[in-house]
Amino acid sequence: MAGKVFFSVSMSLDGFIAPASPEELMGRQWRELQAWVFPQRFFRQNLRFGDGGEEGRDNDILRETFDRTGASVMGKRMFDAGEHAWPEEAPFHTPVFVVTHEKRDPWERPGGTTFHFVTDGPEAALDRARQAAGDRDVRIAGGAATILQYVNAGLVDEFSVAVSPVLFGAGIRLFDGVDAARVALEPIRSEPSPRVTHLTYAVRPR
């Protein structure tokens, strides 16, 4: 049985998931947005940062998201930012399919992550990710433009947003350009934690 297609992101209270400038993608605003992730035990283990870290619902959600993911899809912008920021053992530990116009051989990293570069469009990348994932889920890792392509194409089954108590004022909005006439949302759950509020929705055709 094929798994679901989903995305899971952190979002500022005013609706942004990243700064506008690629040079600021790992800067102060992004660090504030992701501040709930960094102390978690699972995050520290996954990136080989050592023992210790917090346990609780935030930690469980990170682990559950990782465990359900059999393959990921991302856009070239996200890959370009991460290529220089991820450790040698990239944190995915599954196949990752990069939607791009650039032809490139697969890039295998220690720990089970292999990046595959797909030049024949988002649906082809998703098809390959589904095959690689088997009965596990496919995560649309980002960025916002790539997520939106899949949402507007009716290819996303559900998503989770961790709403962080920070304001950006400007940047890249998660749903800027969404085809709202075609997309309906069904609330699945809302889980507040001391750091963020986790919102999960099923995506339905309107």
From TrEMBL:
Gene3D superfamilies, sorted: Dihydrofolate Reductase, subunit A
InterPro entries: DHFR-like_dom_sf, RibDG_C, Riboflavin_Biosynth_HTPR
Source taxon at top rank: Bacteria
Pfam families with a match to the protein in the record: RibD_C
Domain Bacterial bifunctional deaminase-reductase C-terminal positions: 4-193
Official protein name in the record: Deaminase
Organism: Paractinoplanes deccanensis
